[in-house]
Specification:
8 strands, 5-stranded mixed sheet, about 40% helix, 7 helices
């Protein structure tokens, strides 16, 4: 019994949910605490294009229809996390939920109906998360770099010097915002 418990403790699954302006993603990663070649490995990545920004950036709210789909999706993600024995998760919402007047209310309803806790993060936090996610991929950390991530609702810019984060900025410019602006002007 003791030996079986030790084996289970070596590999643990964690999840991240990203509720973006364009898509809602579930990423499940396995953390291997043994002396394996990789500390973390991807187990599953699911991306569903709900396009919450279409509502948030034009009407200022997320429609009842999109809210219903988001709740259904969170229920599905919760079941997948159970199937994959996820021990902990972090769920974050970005630009569309920040801008939608009903964003906080939707988050509360999701918590009540699914049990999933979602944080609405600001642009600075989003930029830092993007930086932390991509810095380990950089082989050459010498010199100056600008890392730009264009999302559906916002664009995050990180300035790096000698492998250190010097400055982070977030701007409300994104692909879904631009497409919606074009659609409004052609009407």
């Amino acid at each position: 019994m003791q030996e079986h418990m030790m084996i289970n403790m070596k590999k643990v699954n964690y999840a991240a949910i990203d509720i973006g302006s364009n898509a809602v993603r579930l990423l499940i990663k396995c953390v291997n605490e043994e002396n394996a070649p990789e500390l973390m490995s991807k187990v599953q990545l699911i991306r569903i294009p709900l396009r919450l920004g279409e509502d948030a950036f034009t009407a200022g709210i997320i429609s009842a229809e999109k809210e219903k789909k988001l709740i259904r999706l969170m229920k599905a993600y919760k079941q997948l996390m159970k199937i994959y024995d996820v021990v902990d998760y972090r769920a974050c919402a970005t630009s569309a939920m920040r801008d939608a007047k009903n964003g906080k209310d939707i988050i509360k309803r999701i918590k009540k109906k699914t049990g999933i806790r979602i944080e609405i993060i600001d642009g600075q936090e989003e930029a830092k998360m993007i930086y932390n996610n991509h810095i380990e991929c950089m082989e050459d950390r010498n010199g100056n770099y600008m890392y730009v991530d264009v999302g559906g609702g916002s664009t995050e810019i990180n300035l790096l010097s000698q492998g250190e984060l010097v400055c982070s900025r977030s701007y409300n410019i994104g692909t879904v915002r631009i497409l919606n602006k074009d659609r409004k002007s052609t009407r």
